[in-house]
# Entry
Amino acid sequence: MSNPDVGIVLGHGDIAAALVSAVELITGRGGRLIALTNAGLDSDQIDDLLRRTIETSGARVIFTDLAAGSCNMAACRLVRWRPDLIVVTGVNLPALLQYVMHDGAEPEQAVSEAVQRGSGALRVLQGRSRAG
Amino acid sequence: MPVELYRIDDRLIHGQVVVGWGQPMNAGFIALVDDVVASSDWERELYRMGVPPQLDLFFASVEDAPGQLGAWRADQRAGILLTGDIDTMYRLVSNVDGITAVNLGGVHHRAGRIERLRYIYLSPGEAQALRDLEARGVSVTARDVPSARPVPLRELLDAGARA
# Structure
């Protein structure tokens, strides 16, 4: 059964758990994101972990950390069998914050807004000299 | 420029390969030798999607790889050759000359395997295949990323024996 309110964050090391923890700390909204790691797993095992989590959670959206990474490969491989899934790679905290605040939007709309927010969040904040 | 890294990694193309090794090597291509991937249009497209556009990907089955290796070695760019398991690398080494060093980058836990390093688990048959590789004159070391110390095969197998 599909659950549009839930997303999966799959990444290297502890990054997914850290991002999900930060989202819950900032928004107070828990249970919207499930953190998964690829640590210690080969590609088949990452595929299995992701497939089982999708089946049990009903999530339709998977956020991964790196386009060239094994997490993203696993997510893209799964889309072959479940074309209704949406994969977003290069995830960051602003994108996830936007996603969990979507409140009832369809996953496609929530993802579109999250990508827009996340991709615009990287900026160079150059200090100004006090002199002059 | 020769193929600079012959690597066994059961995740095939992933972050450690593309970023961890590929960037400091300034790699221009990755040659993936894998029978399943080579025979699947969809799998090949999946891997192409994941890598930066400046990095070329070549695919070959174990049977076809010897015929393509000459072109990969003649490429002016630095290259990485990947297999997903020890058996595939062993068969490749058996069929071509000139592979003098093999990097063990990732062989993860499966039933029947013993932990040798955090990222290397070996069955008795796999350990023997690696010994056979060294007996053929191939230097085998475990090293997941370039900044890690290369662990020679003898030390790797001794570590497993003590565990």
Summary: The first strand of chain A starts at residue 7 and ends at 11. The mean pLDDT of chain A is 93. The two ends of chain A are 63 Å apart (CA to CA).
